[in-house]
Design a protein that fits this description.
about 250 residues; alpha/beta; Rossmann fold; seven-stranded parallel β-sheet; about 45% helix
Amino acid sequence: MTPTDERVAIVTGGSRGIGAATAKRLARDGFAVALTYRERREAADEVVAAIEADGGRALAVQADLAERDDVPRIFAATDEAFGGRLDALVLNAAAIPYGTVEELPEEQWEWAFAVNARAAFLAFREAGRRMMTEGGRVVAVSTGLAATPLANTNAYSASKAAVEALAKSFAQEVGPRGITVNAVRPGITDTEGLGIPQQLIDALVQQTPLRRLGQPEDLADVIAFVCSPDARWITGQVLYASGGLG
């Protein structure tokens, strides 16, 4: 595959967990991958090194999605590294504050919506301006909490529900150009950001027909499918990848 034929993907929050697994999987599928990180430079560099060791191409871009200007900067860095082409966008980075409605600081609520919802809007806009040919793929990683929120997750749950609505609307706008837009809704997944008590984890696992925690690779495989040509007839959907939970 020549550089001009190489597909290009952006994966936000690609230094760990679902994002890292997705970046590696897309690279194995032939994408050059720009992955973002906020603070974990060393972890992001390890993902890039793993991709390059397998013969792929990757770039780590430092970005804080709470900052408006950082979103277009991600796309500009990807353009510079990979020639201005963009075939897939995976929005995985998330802000997950915990607290009751009565106790959560307003700044934490605004942070969640800046990272999860506003950044999605800005990223969708940048992607839409670049995906000019049929076959573009946009995937937003959501959460089962968007449908069934738990106590203390109000900001995260509400902001991800907003992202799902945004994805469905964007799918209508870019569908005539052959671009698909979907959300993937994980169930309980074994990542650093899980942040809930072990007792609740155990209870949720028992409610999951497959009786285990999801692994980042489980979600990466689903996301990779949605980014593939085989998913050309799936758009405007919220796909559950939860092991049957929910």
